[in-house]
Amino acid sequence: MQSISTAEHQRRYIYGILMAGVGSILFSGKGVLIKLSFSYGTDSETLLALRMLMALPLFWVIYWWESRRKAMNPLSWPDLLKIFFLGFLGYFFSSYLNFLGLQYISVGLERIVQYLTPTIVLFISYFVLKKAISRLQWYAMVVGYIGVMIVFIQDASSTGINAWLGMVLVFGSACSYAIYLISSGEMVQRVGSVRLVVYASTISALLSLIQSTFYNPSAIFEQAQAIYWFSLLNAGLCTVVPMLLIMIAINRIGSPLVAQASILGPVSTVFLGYFILSEPITWIQISGMSLVIAAMWLLVRNDGIRKKSPNSSESDDFNKTESLN
Predict the structure, then answer these.
(1) What is the number of H-type helices and E-type strands within the chain?
(2) Nearest alpha-carbon partner for 191 in 73, 77, 54, 20
(3) Whole-structure pTM value
(4) How far apart are the C-alpha atoms of 198 and 174, rounded to whole Å?
């Protein structure tokens, strides 16, 4: 019986790691599809609206399935207002800044900057929530940001001043998402992760549609056929499917291991950018990426170890960063 139990545990572990890795790779493909769409002359507002509108029915199918499994408590108006704020901040505004930034920097740099989200969570926790940061975490964050600047040098050498604009926009996107993660902690406990994701996505879809209509009322109906295919892949294969894989992986192996498996994300993005978009890969870029990955691995490993301690009172804001990003 014990051997069967051990075999089952190993199988769950392997499947969990595979799901986390595949989910991280699929999430990372989003930037490549956006870049391909930009090559057809479309704009960020239209792309964001198409992505969210195509993803919306899939999210509601997930909600319907989840509602069949367990009853859901009714929400109050204050809860709905908080969810509206979270949907705006974490799904609409963060995504919009990310789409804008991708016009100016490579997909590799974009994914690496987004990979710094856990450090932003720690900074906010330290300066706003007055939570302690260990010496190892400080060292890891310094190394991570040095790595980003090394990769940034690569982009700046080819795109010049535009790289600064893209860097600021994508970093602003990561900051917006980090605030969403910290703010959503209480709502996840009260509402449930699936319902929060579906409601927040619905709000983002409505806001992106309003923005696109205001920007150009007929734009979403006048795109090249390839744009609609890219948007459909972005919505399904690079948004909803990886979200499900990572949520299942978290249930199987826990957030720390999922976060460590997510190192495949920035690595795969760099190579996808090379093979599909012809973006260069240099030793400078690889060196910077390696520093960022090593720093984030130290952070999630240290955080996971502290959570296993019976005396640990740290919140789960850090580890849940990989559940949706």
Answers:
(1) 15, 0
(2) 73
(3) 0.90
(4) 20
